[in-house]
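Worked Example 4.2. Consider the chain below.
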Amino acid sequence: MAVALRRYWPRLFVSTGTVVVIGSVAGLRDPLASMASYTASLMALNQVAPPLLLLGMRRSSRSASAIEQWLFDPWVAFCVFGAVTIAISLPGIFAPAVANAVFSAPLGLLELASGLLLWRQILPGGQTLDADWKIGAFGFLAGIPMTVVAVVWMLAPAVLYTPYLDVLCRWNISPLADQRWAGFIMLVSGAPLQLASLWLILGLRAPGLIDKQPS
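Applying the procedure from the previous section yields the following structure tokens:
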């Protein structure tokens, strides 16, 4: 029974991740309705769908090409994830995105791609760093920009993105409250990454419990 259930786990992970992606992309169609809802869709693409999809995918045993070796380099993933997190949060990019649903879709795809690159370095089967504490430190440091952005949104005394100033929020709350909820959603969404990283830093994973698979 346990073996049969284990056989279906990958399919369940991939199916759930796919549903999350579809639902999140649909949530990007009306970004002006609520900053909190828009942020929830982006965070689902960045922090929820990637680990689910990766946990359900089989790792190939073939040798990686030069492009794959570069693309899956941990520091490339680190830089891409940090750059996307910070850039998308800047008013110069975020403001046009919330005002234009067409522009918000590519940002969602960037969030998904950067999340896949990052989580591949943390989850078993795709790790390229050679020690759990290094993997944990990598994930913890990568999550800091997202935490900083979330705190700024929660503590800012004024609305940071002008498209939301004169828009009635879907949840009948003020634009400033909506922005603070968006920061809270981002903070909570980043918690699994931080917890998983701390777990690895502290060496709490039992040896042999989850074997690394060839990448």
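The mean pLDDT is 83. The chain has one domain: 2-55+70-201. Compare this with Example 4.1 before moving on.
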